[in-house]
Amino acid sequence: MHPSLIKPAVMAAAAAAVTAATIGFSSSASAVDPDPVTGGTTTIGVSLSDAVHEALEHIVVLPIRPATATFDPTRKVLEYKFPVTGGDGSVNTFFGDIKNGGGVRIINTESRRSVKLTNITLTIQDDTVSATPGRSTTPIVFFDAVGEHQFVTSQPESFTASDLQVDAAGASYLDRVLDTDAFVAGQHVGTFATTFTNSLDG
User: Fold this and answer.
1) What does the buried/exposed string (b/e) look like for 42-51 if buried means 16 or more CB atoms within 10 Å of the residue's CB?
2) 8 A C-beta contact, residue 147 and residue 162
3) Which residues, listed in sequence order, are joined to residue 116 by a DSSP beta bridge?
């Protein structure tokens, strides 16, 4: 199998089923044995136009160390980078989580309210990105990694989605906590990419 696989969102379910049959793992989670993730980098890319839209809605997003934010003037993209710190995911099994360090603080400059999101986690089999808000210990799904997907199954593995959208649960939480109506389910916010290694590399 070629290490790079492309899966349009409209074929996600079919592709996952074909992959499962090919590598012969059970549909039950107990039959899957993902490998511990040992490191890597996750990048959320926000286009200049999307960043301007957020600013017009009085929304500012700041990185929480060790996450960083840099602007690429050539591509006109603001990139938020997070270090991969753990998890049990693998695109070879299309199962498991990729956990990241740092986080972001989302600020509504009009209402002067803010919320901190940490423990940003990709759940591969669901194409969702969750985070733990504030002092809570319960994660919420804030984004859906949809659009065209690309995978690299060799080490280091990678997962890329061309369209990162606000999830309904995330939109409801952010609008309520930040006292705004800036977040809408299905709203495009950028792209999502993560590259990581696991014990297969060793």
Assistant:
1) bbbbbbeebb
2) yes
3) 105
Pairing outcome for strands 68-72 and 59-64:
unpaired
Interatomic CA distance for residues 170 and 165, integer angstroms: 10
- Tell me the one-letter amino acid at 172: S
Q: Across residues 109-116, what is the average pLDDT?
A: 97
CA 173 from chain center: how many Å? 17
- CA distance linking residue 129 with residue 135, whole number of Å: 19
User: Around 80, how many Cα atoms within 13 Å sit in the side-chain half-sphere?
Assistant: 24
9: left (phi over 0), alpha (psi -120 to 50) or beta: alpha
Q: Residue 198's pLDDT is what?
A: 85
Strands 128-133 and 97-100 come out as: unpaired
Burial class (CB in 10 A: 0-12, 13-18, 19+), 171: buried
CB atoms within 10 A of CB 141: 17
**Percent of residues in the chain assigned helix, strand, coil, to nearest 5:** 20, 50, 30
Largest CA distance in the chain: 53
pLDDT > 70 fraction of the chain, expressed in percent and rounded:
81
DSSP state of 88: -
**3-class DSSP assignment, residue 186:** coil
- What are the CA-CA distances from residue 129 to residues 2, 30, 45 (Å)? 27, 22, 14
Q: Identify the pLDDT of residue 4.
A: 43
